Amino acid sequence: MTHILHGERIGKQGILRLGCSAVLFDEKQTKVLLTRRTDNGMFCLPGGMIEAGESVTEGCEREVWEETGLRVRVSRLIGVYSDPHIVVVYPDGIQTQIVVLNFEVELLSGKPSLSNETTKVEWFPIHQAMEMDLFHNHTEHIRDALAGRDAAFIR
Prior knowledge:
This protein has a single domain, classed as Nucleoside Triphosphate Pyrophosphohydrolase. It has helices at residues 56-68, 126-131, 138-147; strands at residues 3-6, 15-23, 31-37, 43-44, 47-49, 70-81, 86-89, 95-110, 118-125, 153-154. Strand 7 and strand 8 form a beta hairpin. The two termini are 26 Å apart. The strands form two sheets. Strands 1, 2, 5, 6, 7, 8 and 10 form a seven-stranded mixed sheet that branches. The chain has a three-stranded antiparallel sheet with strand order 4-3-9. The chain is α+β, with helices and mostly antiparallel strands.
């Protein structure tokens, strides 16, 4: 099961990886799209690891497609998140300190569908999503998206 470990500079124990998360609001900006992960049952924003040979926007758009069946376009960078006191531990035992690029995306096409990484794809009222125990600080990612700043947060 994928889980998070916290500790003073625990990131030194893992490998450094570049990831992304995507904030997709509905047309009225009252709901946000969340997925439930198959590996730990937690809700989160769509996203994942950027792969070699793709740009960060391509990686984000691919991850949303793979996890939700939705085609999106990156519209802005919301923030860059790197916490040396957190590692993500995957089911195979690999520990990673992830630098996450959080993007706001806009919906182009598609219908929400499940994948081998998701057991649920659902629109949640923003206030409800903000009260949920989301995976890997994704509440902060949504809050930063709602701030509407032109400049990206660096955390």
